[in-house]
Design a protein that fits this description.
Elements (H helix, E strand, L loop, with lengths): L38 H11 L7 E10 L14 E16 L3 E6 L8 E4 L5 H4 L5 H15 L2 H4 L5 E9 L9 H17 L5 H12 L9 H8 L5 E5 L4 E5 L5 E7 L11 H19 L10 H8 L3 H11 L5 E2 H8 L3 H8 L9 E2 L1 H23 L4 H17 L6 H12 L4 E4 L7 E7 L3 H13 L9 E3 L7 E4 L2
Parallel strand pairs: 3-5
Antiparallel strand pairs: 1-2, 1-14, 2-5, 3-4, 6-7, 8-12, 8-13, 9-10, 11-12
Helix pairs in contact: 3-5, 3-6, 5-6, 6-7, 8-13, 10-13, 13-14, 15-16
The structure holds adenosine-5'-diphosphate, 2-acetamido-2-deoxy-1-O-phosphono-alpha-D-galactopyranose and magnesium ion.
Length: about 475
Amino acid sequence: GQANGEHFTDVPTTNTRALAIKMEVDYIWGTTTNNAISVQKLEQHFRENFQSYKPEYYVKVPGRVNLIGEHVDYCGYSVFPMAIEQCIVVAAKRINNQQTIQLTNLSSERYENVSKNISSISTDSLSKSPCWSNYFLCGVRGAREYLSESQLRPIENVGFLFAVAGNIPESSGLSSSSALVTAAVMATLVGYGVQISRLELAEISAKCERYIGTAGGGMDQAIAVNAKQGYATRIDFNPLTIKQFRLPNDVKFIVAQSLAVKNKAASNDFNTRVVECRLASQIIAKRLNLEWKHMTVLATLQKNLGNTLDQMIELVHQHLHVDKYSKKEICEILNVSKNELDEVSLTPNTIDVTEFFLHQRALHVFEEAKRMETFCKLCENSGSASDLGKLMDDSHSSLRDLYQCSHPDLEELVDVCKRGRAYGCKLTGAGWGGCVVAMVPSAGAEEFVKFVKDQFYSKRNADEKCMFTTNPSEGACAYLKP
Ligand code: ADP
Ligand code: NG1
Ligand code: MG
């Protein structure tokens, strides 16, 4: 905590009931990471942009790093992330007798101020552009959809002023998008004085982030909301459940940026992977005479069959060929027209995709689900660092070769990390650039950082801010002024 640390305690204002989320006294402005967010600067920005009004409350939502279980959440399989210190902070104030929501952003000049009527945020307009304000508006819309008619009526004429600040490296697989969306959901619900559980908050945030156009799973929002300081979290889906794990203390997890960025909503690469997994599931289901149209999720298929993951891997080898599939071939196998396929299996931005690799994607998912189970067991039973590291390395190879979501610069970084004696190293998040997470011996961490700086960042004129050691952080909190 720094000198400029003004505290907010859990004293709700008269017409704001406490959110069922723990309201904590914390130092959002005193993180140990680079680019710490200054609440004073955020308040000043708020006042400059909003006629000298002062913020009434704040919410903070962290980014995350996923240790293993990559590209499996939207297939229904478990993941193992932890929250990082970098976060999105929103300063907020309610304005009575108006329907406007005004947004401003301190993070970058690129982020324009936006003003919008709160009751007219259409899902069509949200999926048109992945601009920063649309992520925020996804959250506002998601929060309002959660409320019933009778809950909405009395707050019909409550508008908002929101100022955002963030220090999560963007479009780098550390989930800056979900921190922003979840912060918007929370800021809206806190303003309306609505109670919500952490699990529900995670679920509605995951649902409404899809309005931006990405058909993601629920990992990012679940960890952002449910993380616990000092722990990594195992997240299971359907139903969403959370279990905290201590990580081995003789190792450190270091996150490093490849410096290649990828906005997941700006191309169809991410959704193509989601759709390939759906099609793999549907084709296996069809081959086995199941109700294939409903079998859009690989874990649901497994459950229906009562199979083990090894048996699912067998089915991939039996029923999905390694060569690419054309849309025409898929239509023939499923016995549907192209239009029908668009409807039951594809997303608006994948209807023009011409080739699908189903064998490789499904194989990655089932094998990654197995690795994730093994990783958790090793954490519980004090497994060796080299065994854990091997699983991370295997995860990465699979993401590169079967899932094809790596990037040349990221490959170079992985190679440097391995030469720098990491036990294991893999891309984290969706990939196509972004960050890697490396597991290194605690005793050798300093040397490792120096090595990566020398071998990777120095020739790119980048500095040590591109790397950081993760301290598993606390999940989302709201701060009300005492
Ligand atoms: P990530 O891997 O970081 O989640 P995404 O492509 O999913 O990457 O989302 C990145 C987008 O999120 C950015 O293009 C931007 O629109 C939005 N975003 C992230 N951080 C901020 C921020 N501090 N302020 C405003 N928008 C942000
Ligand atoms: P990032 O790269 O942080 O946007 C995405 C998805 C996750 C998950 C990972 C890959 C969203 C909001 N996020 O994360 O659900 O599928 O990729 O493991 O869609
Ligand atoms: Mg994202």
